[in-house]
Each structure stands twice: as structure tokens, then as C-alpha cells.
Specification:
With 385 residues, the chain is of the alpha/beta class. The protein contains 15 helices and 17 strands. The strands form four sheets. The protein has a nine-stranded mixed β-sheet with strand order 9-10-8-7-6-5-4-1-11, sandwiched between helices. Strands 12-13-14 form a three-stranded antiparallel β-sheet, with no helix packed on it.
Length: 385
């Protein structure tokens, strides 16, 4: 028997699928913005949001696509509509994703006016050669200028995304990216190893043998270097791919890793409400035309809920609390996973201190192996009765 809460989610994700350029690695729900029904999309999205009658959120995250591909007037209408009826004093973290080349002074003013307090910049690399190679249109100078403008406007919670193990990238390139990052003294950074996704330009190139990727050993070497360098600079490595200075961990992203429920709005957006994971219609014209925006609804079994709890929770530096697990799911953690944990500790992939279980350094490097070990076999279902 599960004891999962039936309270309304306190977080929401809003998807803006428009981009001013299409990156070679991206498989998110997105389209090139030219000649798209942007205004109709905003109207439809705001109606979907309003239908939930949300009055209070702790985190609100607007991602994409590229939210700042919207004009300043469109961005203003979007943020005005989302804020209507929201108790802003309860909204602890209000994040908008942005591309460095898109953030004009008037758009920054709109963000400030609507009390956005966190900006996430899709930088990916500071290397101009690699930026062109991955299909980005901004320059390193654009990044520096955008950060300076945001700081001048009073934004201090600025985070950037970087990608490593890019085609043609060397460890020396990663070292240079870290040099520039640390010189900027930003409070938060997310670093992701390049993943090849279907239906992307990079995947098509790889299948034709035209993608020069670093070896798996070099990928590990880059990740280890990043971990060591950022931790030495005072960044807490609080999740597999995320590093923050004290007080700047992403509350919205921690919500995902805590396996909490959340709303998802917009074309292709995912949500998790009342034990049901759902996904909205995509492409855009399907989302606009359907009265029921949700195309997929999956009521999670107890087995699926438990596996997700482990996969997501172990991404965090703090890991999983076994007593909290037992209370949440009505299942004795050690009865379900005791042998798995003992084996992973023997393999030096997990640490256990009292009721807290977390990945070791080696476990971080081999995270997929650890997560695979926590999949419940069919013959373990008897434990979940």
C-alpha cells in the first residue's frame, strides 16, 4: 500500500517550443520560430494553465525550446498570464531559460518586471569553433555581454548549461571552458555529457560515420576533471550533472530528483499529478487543436513508483533515506533492496551511513550500472503486496 500524498503539486513546468536556431544535438519538442502561430500558442497555453486554478507554487520553470525567442511583448503576455492569480510571495524560484544571443534589454526588463529570479543560459561551450560545430548561433562574447546585462539589472541567480564530450572536443578544451566559467563566478552550473538522440542532426551524422566523438575513457576523464575542479572551487556537487555554490541549488530540479509531483504545460510537456505521469500532444498543431491536451497518461504501479524513487533519488549527492522510503511506500527498504545494496557496496559503487544511501565517486561514473541493479525482478513482486 502506498502512502503517496494527494496534495496539489507545488511546482510547474511550462514549455515554449520555439527556437531561433535548431541545435544539432537537441531532441526536445521544438520548431524554428519563423511563421509559427506563436500568439495562438501563448493563448492556448495560458488557457491550459488557468484551467488548473493554481493559486500557489513554490517553483515555476519556463523552458524550451527557447522562451526568449519570443518577442518582448509576447514574453510579457506569457508571464502576465502565468502570474495572474498566483500568490507571488509563495513563489520561491521562478526560472526562465534563455539563449545568450536572444536576451535584449527589453526582454531582461520584462523578466525583472514579472519577478523572475533565476535565469538559465544555454551556453554549452565557450569555444567558438565548437559552438559552430554544434549548431549554436551565439558567440562567447554574447555570453559575457548577457551575463553583464543580467547582473546590471539585478539578477544574481544565473546558471549556465555546458556540454562536454562534444565532437572534436579535447580535455584541453574542457579545461578552457572551466577556466572561463570560474572567472565568471556564477553561482550554479549544469554540465552534461553529450547524448546522441534519435531524430537529431548529430545522430544522422553518427550513422553516416561523420561524427568524431571523444572515447568513453576521455568522457570519464573529462567528467572526473570537472568534478575535481568545481568542488575545489567551492561548488557543491549536489546532483550527477549539477553544481552550485552555497544557497544556489536548483529548487525546481531538486523537486524532480525528490520524485515529487508537478504540472506540465505546453506542447510535448510532461507532468506528474495524482500518481499519473502524462505527456501533452506534440507537434504544435496537435496541441493547439485538441481540447484534451494530454496524449499519454500512465498510472504508475507501486513497482514503477519505487523504481523511479531510486533512479531519481540516487542522482542526488544526498542519495536515498531508507526510513523515508519505508514511510512513503509502506515497504521495508532492506527487505526489498538489502541484497542489491550489499552487492553495490562490495563493488564500491554505493556508500551507506546509517539510513542514508548514496553513490560513491565510482558510482557516479557508472551510474547506469547502479540504476540497472535497482530494477525489480518479476519474482520480487511478492514483496510489494
Amino acid at each position: 500500500m502506498t502512502t503517496m500524498t494527494t496534495r496539489k503539486p507545488s511546482s510547474a513546468y511550462v514549455h515554449i517550443p520555439f527556437c531561433s536556431q535548431i541545435c544539432y544535438y537537441c531532441d526536445f519538442a521544438k520548431v524554428y520560430i519563423k511563421n509559427q502561430p506563436v500568439d495562438r500558442y501563448i493563448t492556448t497555453l495560458l488557457a491550459e494553465f488557468a484551467a488548473e486554478q493554481i493559486t500557489s507554487l513554490k517553483t515555476l520553470y519556463i523552458g524550451g525550446g527557447t522562451p526568449t525567442a519570443l518577442s518582448a511583448a509576447q514574453l510579457d503576455r506569457l508571464l502576465s498570464g502565468l502570474r495572474q492569480g498566483l500568490e507571488m510571495s509563495a513563489l520561491q524560484e521562478f526560472t526562465v531559460e534563455a539563449n545568450p544571443g536572444d536576451l535584449s534589454d527589453d526582454k531582461i526588463a520584462v523578466l525583472k518586471h514579472h519577478q523572475v529570479n533565476r535565469v538559465s543560459l544555454g551556453v554549452q561551450t565557450f569555444n567558438p569553433r565548437l559552438l559552430k560545430k554544434i549548431g549554436r548561433s551565439h558567440t562567447p562574447e554574447d555570453v559575457l555581454e548577457t551575463i553583464a546585462k543580467l547582473r546590471a539589472a539585478g539578477f544574481d541567480n544565473i546558471t549556465i548549461d555546458l556540454i562536454y564530450a562534444l565532437p572534436g572536443q579535447t580535455l584541453a578544451d574542457v579545461e578552457e571552458d572551466l577556466d572561463i566559467l570560474l572567472s565568471l563566478n556564477l553561482p550554479h552550473v549544469a554540465l552534461y555529457s553529450l547524448i546522441l538522440e534519435n531524430h537529431t542532426i548529430f545522430m544522422n551524422k553518427m550513422r553516416r560515420g561523420r561524427l568524431d566523438l571523444p572515447s568513453e575513457e576521455t568522457d570519464f576523464e573529462m567528467y572526473t576533471y570537472i568534478m575535481d575542479r568545481l568542488q575545489a572551487a567551492g561548488y557543491a556537487h549536489y546532483e550527477i550533472s549539477n553544481f552550485g555554490q552555497k544557497g544556489y541549488q536548483s529548487a525546481h530540479n531538486l523537486m524532480y530528483w525528490d520524485n515529487a509531483e508537478y504540472y506540465g504545460f505546453g506542447a510535448g510537456a510532461s507532468g506528474y499529478v495524482a500518481g499519473v505521469r502524462y505527456k501533452n500532444h506534440v507537434p504544435i498543431h496537435h496541441y493547439l487543436e485538441r481540447s484534451d491536451k494530454k496524449v499519454v497518461r500512465d498510472k504508475l504501479s507501486l513497482k514503477e513508483q519505487i523504481e523511479e524513487e531510486l533512479f531519481l533519488g540516487l542522482r542526488k549527492q544526498s542519495g536515498i533515506n531508507t526510513q523515508a522510503f519505508t514511510t512513503k511506500f509502506g515497504q521495508d527498504f532492506d527487505l526489498v533492496y538489502g541484497k542489491v545494496v550489499a552487492d553495490l557496496i562490495d563493488r564500491q559503487l554505493l556508500n551507506r551511513v546509517g539510513q542514508q544511501i548514496s553513490l560513491t565517486r565510482q558510482g557516479l561514473l557508472l551510474g547506469n550500472d547502479v540504476f540497472q541493479a535497482f530494477l525489480l525482478d518479476d519474482d520480487q513482486n511478492f514483496l510489494l503486496q
